[in-house]
What does this fold into?
Amino acid sequence: MTTTTAISTRRTVLQALGATGAVALAGCLAENDPDPAAADETGLEAAKAVDIDRIAADPTDVPPPVDWDEPRTHEITLESIEVTAEVEPGVTVDFMTYEGQIPGPMYRVREGDTVELTFKVPGEHNAAMHNVDSHAVYGPGGGAVATSLGPGDDTASIRFKAIYPGVHIYHCAVPAMDQHISLGMFGAILVEPEDGLPEVDREFYFGQHELYTTGDTGEDGHHEFDFDAAADEDPTYVLLNGEVGAITEDGHGPVTAEVGETVRVYFANGGPNLTSALHPIGNVWSRYYRDGDLLSEPGRNVETSPVAPGTVTAGEMELHVPGPIKIVDHALSRVTQRGMIGVIDVQGEPNPEIYDDDL
Ligand SMILES: [Cu+2]
It folds into this structure.
């Protein structure tokens, strides 16, 4: 383990958790870190030049609510792109993605709409075979059979009718699907019920997944995918939007919202293996759509809820007071030691009747 950089993973996350926690926990971690001279050497290659500066999808990149009431047809083109990018400074990975981002783009249709999906695997951007298995599809492999393409193959197109409402995942489902999902190939498609969803002020879209590599967490260099670690379900990183603390001050910055607003979060767990214990630190899911079920009555005031791999879920929060809300997996070692955190920064006037931090 490269001790210095291993600490940097934790420091990024601990800073995102809050200064007090950072001081207390950083001291604790420093005592527990092994002597660098005794560290094992995994012999990573040097970090590679990156193809893109950012693998993390923008959480505000959510399609607007359905405003039509007759069935329509959506033409969607989705491209697989393999790119080298950083998980954190000094640590590179050859990711596999839809459209160069993690999670892949979110799509939004209405119950009864038709989707014509064209999939592309351009030879110049891919070395492996890929496809699309969408959980919104009735059909073999959720479309994966018909969309399986090798690099440079002609495009493949499928048409499906979005019959059942819900928020669903799509992902790559080639034989090494665990590898491809771990390297980033998953995203969300929202099929709104005919009656729509409650109006909210803002929506965000996040994706959790875990990364299994030949290096140690935070070890400088280029990390390769580790099939043994995947078999053991022993991840090097557990990430929100593909990077350590991507959506925090130490990454690309938090997303913002205002006191008094109601926000909805769509949360995809790509996995491939770990169930997330989804929790918004400093808030609660006032209405929670378990397992992406948009037809049943939502759960009320849900604190932490399991999100199985291969699921997109949704939850709504009321923003009564300013300050950060931290989106985490409440299996907290994944936060403090594996990178899994994102921040919604709520701005506005204090509301001491609800919360007073200076009595
Ligand atoms: Cu793939």
